[in-house]
Structure formats: structure tokens, C-alpha cells
Design goal:
mainly alpha, 0% strand, Retrotransposon gag domain-containing protein
């Protein structure tokens, strides 16, 4: 159906609030532009079943919460819909936790990696970047492994950078001096 058969001005009719309707030279906008909407997790499809992918889950939920401007109170109320098999865990601790950050930290601790630090380090240093792996992907993989280390066992940031740099492909290291490498993802 074209604009004429609808009996309107097409774009102007559909987006009337964005136009100079009163001929004053001012453009009008909907009242809620620039204001965060009250939102919820109802359309978020991420789920955590209690498995090993807790870091991916918590990152995805946090990004969704931030993008949709979901308040902490609503986020806490909506948390059970994500947990499926982990809902028993949530029921046992929900009265002891008051903030979203506490929930995310506790979830990571409860369902995070059970690898010993030496196993994580072994995985990190097991492979160097090959000819076929994109640098960004390689760095992300190594960073994901570094994050698996328990907080009290994590390397200081300069050592993490050194670790990622030393595992880069030799051609990249020839073109990029270590002092220029500052890849923080």
C-alpha cells in the first residue's frame, strides 16, 4: 500500500512528532527521548542452566541490563527467569544478597571454573597464535582463560599484557614492538 492510498503523508504521518507541526520552525520529539525507559528482562533470551559457561552468561545478562537501562531492583526480581536449573541455588541465597553486583559475583563463584590455576596457565601457554587465527580472536581466547583464574591468583595487568604479547604470531611481534602493545579487551 503506498502513501497516497493510506490517505496520509507517509513518512510525515508515521513520524509526525518529529516534524515542525505548528509551523514555528521548531522540531518536536517524543517526550521520552533521552530518558531511560523502565524495562525488564522479559525479552532477554539468555539462560543459565548451572553449567560451566557462567562468565558468558553473566556478561550477556549485564550487557542486556545496561543497554535496556534495567534498574537494580527489577533486575533482582527478574533473575530467577534466567536460572532454570540454578534456581535452587538462587532460592538458597536470595535473602542474603541485596545488590546486582553481589549476585553476579556469587554466581561466578558458585558456578565458575573449577580448574586449578596451574591448569588454566597450562591452557594459556599451550598454544601460540598460528597463521590462521585472527589476532583479535586469539587475544580474546587468552583473555577469557586469564579471567578463569581465581581473583586472588590473577596476574597483575602488566604481566597479563606480556603473556598475551609473547603468544602472538612472530610476524605480528616483528611489526609491533612490545611497548606499543596495549590490547585491553
Amino acid at each position: 500500500m503506498d502513501d497516497e492510498t493510506r490517505g496520509g503523508n507517509g513518512k510525515k504521518e508515521r513520524h509526525a512528532s518529529y516534524y515542525d507541526d505548528d509551523n514555528t520552525g521548531r522540531t518536536t520529539y517524543p517526550a521520552n527521548i533521552g530518558r531511560p525507559a523502565t524495562s525488564s528482562f522479559s525479552k532477554c533470551t539468555v539462560r543459565h542452566q548451572g553449567g560451566d559457561y557462567v562468565l558468558e552468561f553473566t556478561n550477556a545478562v549485564q550487557i542486556y541490563k545496561d543497554c535496556k537501562h534495567i534498574s537494580e531492583q527489577i533486575a533482582l526480581m527478574g533473575l530467577p527467569m534466567f536460572l532454570e536449573k540454578a534456581v535452587t541455588w538462587w532460592k538458597s541465597i536470595k535473602n542474603t544478597i541485596t545488590t546486582w553486583d553481589e549476585v553476579m559475583d556469587t554466581l561466578r563463584k558458585a558456578f565458575g571454573s573449577t580448574k586449578a590455576p596451574y591448569q588454566v596457565l597450562n591452557e594459556i601457554f599451550a598454544t601460540e597464535q598460528n597463521d590462521f587465527t585472527l589476532t583479535e580472536r586469539f587475544i580474546c581466547e587468552k583473555l577469557a582463560l586469564l579471567v578463569e583464574l581465581q581473583e586472588d591468583r590473577r596476574m597483575p595487568e602488566p604481566l597479563q599484557l606480556d603473556t598475551r604479547y609473547c603468544l602472538l604470531h612472530r610476524c605480528i611481534k616483528k611489526k609491533l614492538a612490545k611497548t606499543q602493545f596495549n590490547w585491553k579487551l
